[in-house]
Specification:
The protein is of the alpha/beta class and about 300 residues long. Helices cover about 50% and strands about 15% of the residues. It binds guanosine-5'-triphosphate (GTP) and magnesium ion.
């Protein structure tokens, strides 16, 4: 097995062992009964695919089973695998600005993994010989700026920041201007995940998005929503709120390695219709992978 696949398999072992691992028991060699369908549907819901998606998958499989004359439950395994894969898009290449710098905003609820993901993306772009600049637009928490600065020092990436409680829009604006002056290829702007109220947060993000466009027409070139896959269906609600305020262009899944609920990926695809670009499979900077749907399916189905 190649390296990418084994990384996904290891990263997804919680998901494959808990929810999807039981597929093997449900789909034994006995005949398909009503109970088989009920158990399979319950499993998909537990794996966090969401009720709508789970029901849809079951209905499709039931049709397939009828059309193909499947009798034994284990004959459903490959049908399930194919059905899950068909619900994910092919791997997406990340497209950025035609001419540098590309400005990327990272948004998401507090603790979702934005700052860590900024570091991981920074390392990835450095490895592609790109000049990277960080902007610390989470001015609400002093520790947030420090956290990004620690990563900046470790990776030798400069960080533009402001005074505590200063205007995040101003920090974002300064970061883009500095990026232009310093010939940066990629500008990664980390934002706050929590303010006094959610309304304030969304207003602030809208402002950051707007101000960045003033500093550089066409920016931001990407707004990536970092979603914590351990929080399950709640994350979908939050994603909708972010998407209403800023123009989210893609999703980064964090903490797939600590989540037993990797099925959220299907709900995101089905309900948010946003491309899934990267996945966090651990806490180290090297633990960010381009979202690979085939490796993902292999990973969650490793146990059956
Ligand atoms: N296991 C694992 N942990 C992760 C991953 N991504 C982030 N984390 C951890 O999640 C915690 C929160 O990450 P942060 O990057 O600080 O999250 P944030 O969204 O910036 O949080 P706020 O700044 O409070 O909004 C940290 O302990 C990270 O190490 C991942 O892919 N896997
Ligand atoms: Mg942060």
């Amino acid at each position: 097995m190649n390296n990418t696949f084994s990384k996904w398999r290891d990263g997804l072992s919680k998901t494959s062992k808990s929810a999807f691992g039981r597929v093997a028991n449900i789909l034994g060699t006995s005949e398909i009964t009503d109970e088989t369908w009920d158990d399979l549907e319950a499993l998909l819901i537990q794996a966090d695919l969401g009720i709508a998606t789970a029901t849809d998958i079951i209905e499709t499989l039931q049709r397939n089973a009828r059309d193909l004359g499947l009798i034994r439950a284990d004959e459903l395994k490959s049908a399930l695998r194919a059905e899950l894969r068909s619900r994910l898009d092919d791997q997406k290449d990340v497209t950025l600005a035609e001419s540098p710098p590309s400005v990327i905003l990272l948004v998401g609820v507090n603790g979702s993994g934005k700052t860590t993901t900024a570091a991981k993306l920074g390392a990835r772009f450095l490895a592609q010989d790109k000049k990277v600049l960080f902007g610390a637009a989470d001015t609400f928490r002093a520790a947030a700026v420090e956290q990004l600065q620690v990563w900046g020092e470790r990776l030798s990436i400069n960080v533009i920041s402001g005074q505590p409680e200063s205007d995040p829009g101003a920090v974002a604006y300064n970061t883009v201007q500095a990026g232009i002056a310093r010939d940066a290829d990629v500008i990664l702007i980390d934002t706050a995940g929590r303010l006094h109220t959610r309304f304030n947060l969304m207003q602030e993000l809208e402002k950051v998005e707007r101000v960045v466009g003033k500093a550089l027409p066409g920016a931001p070139h990407a707004v990536w929503l970092v979603m914590d896959t351990t929080t399950g269906q709640n994350a979908l609600q939050q994603a909708r709120a972010f998407n209403e305020s800023v123009n989210v262009t893609g999703v980064i899944l964090s903490k797939l390695d600590s989540s037993a609920r990797g099925g959220l990926v299907f709900a995101i695809r089905n309900e948010l219709k946003l491309p899934i670009l990267f996945a966090g499979l651990g806490e180290r900077v090297s633990d960010l992978e381009v979202f690979n749907p085939d490796a993902f399916i292999e990973g969650i189905m490793a146990e059956f």
